[in-house]
Design brief:
Blueprint: H1 5-19, E1 24-30, H2 34-38, H3 40-49, E2 56-62, H4 74-84, E3 87-90, H5 99-104
Parallel strand pairs: 1-2, 2-3
Length: about 110
């Protein structure tokens, strides 16, 4: 979930209701914007607090097609996912790289 600071809190109150009964969640950050990666801990805490303990959470680094503008190393995403027990993938919505795999739950 990528949200600007101004709308972040009001958006959160809405998203909390969606966690109830959810089988899974995608935490998505933009590999070209460090601040989106820096907010992951907060979003993960929110997801875990408002969902069942067996909900599957995937960490998705998006915009992998913009390698030259990368601000978050793949290894950082992998380490965050490993530390928090998440499935990790990098995708590109523009080129559709790994998008189908994410939606089908394939790693």
């Amino acid at each position: 979930m990528l949200v600007g600071k101004a709308g972040q809190e009001s958006f959160r109150s809405i998203t909390r209701s969606y966690y109830r009964g959810a089988a899974g969640a995608l935490l998505v950050y933009d590999i070209t914007r460090r601040e989106t990666f820096n907010h992951l801990t907060s979003w993960l805490e929110d997801a875990r607090q408002h969902s069942s303990s067996n909900m599957v959470i995937m960490l998705i680094g998006n915009k992998s097609d913009l390698e030259s503008r990368r601000d978050v190393k793949r290894e950082e995403g992998e380490a965050f996912a490993r530390e928090h027990g998440l499935i990790f993938m990098e995708t590109s919505a523009k080129t559709a790289c790994n998008v189908e795999e994410v939606l089908l739950g394939k790693k």
